[in-house]
Every structure is written in structure tokens, then in C-alpha cells.
Amino acid sequence: MAHGKSQRLRFKRRRNGKTDYRRRMRMLRGGVPRAVVRLSNTQVTCQLVEFGMEGDRILASVNGKSLAKYGWPAGASRKSVPACYVAGYALAKSATADGHGEAILDIGLAASSPGSRVFAALRGMVDAGLDIPHGEGVLPDDDRINGTHIDESIAAAVEAARKAIEEA
């Protein structure tokens, strides 16, 4: 049998380009829950995930579809910068209500461009009181968070959603 490095079969998630196992191990060693942010073609998903030997446990979760219960407009994008901010804000409020005060950001294989949608979700989590280590230079500015670059009605929707999350 061949035992060389090039003949060994890699893990399936590594072969498919879904998981960077070195980065995952660095995050898991800290023992702190991960604030996972994933963007699909239609919506954002934010989760607070804790490692377990039998599999990861999801402690709290918010996605683009669940933004409707916070007053997010039905016709508005569920993956835009303001939608990501509101999803991160809602996740952090539910996580802090359950007694989770800190996390580390897990963006997976997404590009880490300053001001991106992933960092809009991070800003929502930080504004809601979740302690996540980050640099201030990567967070998007207030105009992008409020959606003034999209439409003035989105800014009102962001404020309405924040108030609805505070009341819930």
C-alpha cells in the first residue's frame, strides 16, 4: 500500500474546500464558543456554537428568514449589510440572555475584507454586548450599517428591528 503524503486521502470537507482544519483547531483550543457567520446566496446565518466531542452544539441561532419577526421588511434583502447587522444584534441579545458573554468570530473560508457583511454581523454582536476580540478598523461605518447607501427606508427598518429585539 502507498503511504506517501500525496497518496493519502484527505478529509472530505477539506477536499471539497469547506473546512480549514488548522484554523478550526486554533479556535477550538481556546474553549470559548464560536460566533459563526455564514452568507448564502439568499440570506445570512449567525450562530453561537460550542464544541463537543460528539459534535458541535448550537447555543443560539438567527438567520435571514427569522428577521421578519423583528420587523424586517419582506421585500428587503436578507443578506445586505444592514440585515447582517440586525442578525448579529439579535444573536448577541439571545446569547447574552442565555448567559453567554463572550465568543470568538468564525467566518469560515469567507474573505475578510474590512467593512464586509461578515464584519457588519460582528458589529451587531459587539453593539448588543457580546465580548468578541476584534480590531476597530474592520467594522463598517454607520452609513453602511443603517443602509443609507441602499434606501432611506432601510434605516428606519434597522431602528425598528433594534427596538423589537430590545423588547423581546
TrEMBL record:
Q: Where does it sit, as one GO cellular component term?
A: cytosolic large ribosomal subunit
**Nucleotide-binding among keywords:** no
> Is Protein biosynthesis found in the keyword set?
no
Per its record, how is this protein called by name?
Large ribosomal subunit protein uL18
* InterPro entries in UniProt: Rbsml_uL18_arch, Rbsml_uL18_euk_arch, Ribosomal_L18
Q: Which family does it belong to?
A: Belongs to the universal ribosomal protein uL18 family.
Keywords, sorted A to Z: Ribonucleoprotein, Ribosomal protein, RNA-binding, rRNA-binding
* Oligomeric and partner information: Part of the 50S ribosomal subunit. Contacts the 5S and 23S rRNAs.
The protein's matches in NCBIfam families, at most eight in alphabetical order, are given as: PRK08569.1
Q: Which HAMAP family match?
A: Ribosomal_uL18_A
Q: Matching SUPFAM superfamilies, A to Z?
A: Translational machinery components
Q: Which Pfam families match?
A: Ribosomal_L5e (PF17144)
GO molecular function terms listed in the Swiss-Prot or TrEMBL record: 5S rRNA binding; structural constituent of ribosome
UniProt organism field: Candidatus Thalassarchaeum betae
Residues in a coiled coil are: none
Q: Which BP terms from GO are recorded?
A: ribosomal large subunit assembly; translation
Q: What is this protein for, i.e. what is its function?
A: This is one of the proteins that bind and probably mediate the attachment of the 5S RNA into the large ribosomal subunit, where it forms part of the central protuberance.
Q: Which top-level group of life is the source organism from?
A: Archaea
